[in-house]
Amino acid sequence: MPTLPDITQRLATNIGQSVSVVVARKSGDNGLESRKLNLADDAADGFRELCRESLDSLQGSAVVGYSADAELTPREVFLLDDAESLNELGDLRALARRASTLPTTAPRDLDLSIQLYGVVVGRATRSVFVRRVDPQIKYKAGGFLAVAGTQLRRLDQPAFSFSPGFDLIVTDDWVIVQNQAAFERLFRDIGLVERHVSEWVKGITDHLPMADAGVAALRDVALRDSRTWRKLREIRRRGHLAGVELPEVRRYARKMGLDPRTIVQDNQLVFDPGERFSFLHLLNEDLYKGPLTAETFEAQRKAPTGT
């Protein structure tokens, strides 16, 4: 795992080199449709400054791993550097590799339904500062926008606003997440959840029987709810259900004060969307009983201990 000084040194070097700006949106099942914007020199310098501000905000942050129950605090960032995560984020990583060959367009010619923009910096190795945003300033027909210099000046074409702050920073080797909510929404909006959710569900169904209707309901909930797909993703990665059978699931449910009949029926797992968290917490071994009160609790930031 790279250290924060390693990360900031690489980013600082890249920011001082070439810069380009790409905009992208989901394109059916084919990943991202991307375009590169023509940049004036002063605009390029402005984007470099936005990247430097984002780099400054990393100083003093703690680097933590991304897991199903992790929630960022103001002085933390997620670091994803495992092969599975990098593969899932391949579309965003490709923005850096493809920046030099992307078609260039004038801002006035953009289809304005873009979902993200990225500032690509560096030459031999590149980094992408990504923000989940549509930077278009919309205005109603018949009205107009004005900019304040020495005079108000009418703008008759759509304008774009690029606010400070990025949601994630992407390289070939790692991804830094600075804004968790934006990252998880982007993961869904550009089709990454839809593309991978069936594979995540197999972390359960490859080992324990589950009715087709339950599988479909679980997949449908995961497409809408980030906590659900994050939990499915973790169950798949842990692979711990490979040695588990239904009687063990029943015993664990009973021990945690749950009715086993709401989890297993007719020798199959049962998924009720209204009880999805009990179902997923149970299968991910997130539940335990307090030794003093015997009350059932949900583990937070669970991690295996060494022996």
Which properties best describe this structure?
single chain, 307 residues, alpha+beta, 9-stranded mixed beta sheet, two-stranded antiparallel ribbon, 37% helix, disordered C terminus
Task: Outline the structure in words.
By secondary structure, the chain is of the alpha+beta class. It is 37% helix and 21% strand. It contains ten helices and 17 strands. It has helices at 4-15, 41-58, 83-88, 90-98, 180-189, 192-205, 212-224, 226-238, 246-255, 276-283, and strands at residues 19-26, 32-37, 62-65, 76-80, 104-105, 116-122, 126-131, 136-137, 145-148, 152-155, 159-160, 168-170, 175-177, 264-265, 268-269, 287-289, 296-298. It has a nine-stranded mixed beta sheet, sandwiched between helices. Helix 1 packs antiparallel against helix 2.
Order of neighbouring strands in the sheet with most strands: 3-4-13-12-7-6-1-2-5
Class based on secondary structure composition and strand pairing: alpha+beta
Mean pLDDT: 85
H/E element order: HEEHEEHHEEEEEEEEEHHHHHEEHEE
Count of helix runs? 10
Q: Which word captures the global form?
A: elongated
Rg, Cα atoms, Å: 23 Å
Question: Which runs of at least 5 residues are low in confidence (pLDDT < 50)?
Answer: 303-307
Termini separation comes to: 22 Å
- Report the portion of residues in β strands: 15-25%
Query: How much helicity do the residues have?
Result: 25-40%
Tell me the number of strands: 17
Q: Could you give a short account of the major beta sheet?
A: 9 strands, mixed
